[in-house]
């Protein structure tokens, strides 16, 4: 690929090359985290889509760390945008007896749409994962409070979990989500109740 007369490469190829270098036997310790971070940032900022890496992977069947990269791309395509969200999907949000949540679920508020990290729309239950990078400042906390209040006005309940809580007590987080989900499910009226003209 040539850009302005100089050899260049695509973002997708650069990410795959970086991943390969980070997963070689002689790679510098910690370089794999750098490669993961670069991939998460590029996809979160929509500089590249997970599907755009597929041609590069098909050309390199012996890529070091290939299976791990494929699993990471699957999780990103499903909606994970950070290491905290990846951990939560693998250790918190898959709860026996509950349907799989929707990641990055869009809810339209009066001021515009918001996206919940995970949601069970049938019971209007959302989960937000509060990493320090995006939720640590006072302004961010005030923004989150305003957003949660607007969601509550539409009947949503949002559970917030800090990075520390998610990492230290994933089982406790699962229990809390399951208990709230089941409570809200029991409070959801049956379709018959909502039909006009029916008497109880």
From TrEMBL:
InterPro entries with a match to the protein in the record: Restrct_endonuc-II-like (IPR011335), Restrct_endonuc-II-like_dom (IPR049468)
Species this protein is from: Blastococcus haudaquaticus
One Pfam family of this chain: MTES_1575
Organism superkingdom: Bacteria
Protein name in UniProt: Restriction endonuclease type II-like domain-containing protein
Residue span, Restriction endonuclease type II-like domain: 123-178
